[in-house]
Amino acid sequence: MNPDQRKDWDTYFMDIAYMVSTRSRCSRRHVGAVLVQGKKLLGTAYNGAPSGVPDCSEAGCMIAEDYELAVENGQEIMIKKQRCVRTIHAEQNLLLFTDRIDREGSSVYVTDEPCWTCANMLANSGITEIVYHRPYPKDTGKVTAMMSQKGIVFRRLESYDPPRETATEIEN
After folding, report:
1. Per the annotation, where are the binding residues?
2. Which listed residue (91, 104, 113, 165) is catalytic?
3. Domain residues for 93?
4. Residue 82 lies in a domain
């Protein structure tokens, strides 16, 4: 990038979301989220254990497994899902630590596509747009359908490159 050029707004806010994700102590996935109204940053959050409680790096992950019935190519299949229940997701923390009035008509930039639970919460939060980078294929179909039903702009920044200092390995 030419040093005289500014980053576009999507890149700027996604860079901030990735920098916020570096605060996460989760060994499986570092996720950051930012709340933006217009071009004004209103809040940031990352995934982690509740304040004052040992996190995954200290106490280990609390993995819960469940199964979900899905249809692929006309066939019903069971999908195994694993998730850490010690961790509050970045989107959930963002909603906990921002005001409803600030969320009305705002955008959320999040490093990872929201899971079904976070998507449900965001759908009722007053936001009008979700911008994400890394896909979460386990919930993409139903999350995309719900966002369409709600009229929430839901888009992926596919050609985005995160800042090098935020790179982490992801466990699925």
Report:
1. 89, 115, 118
2. 91
3. 8-49+87-166
4. no
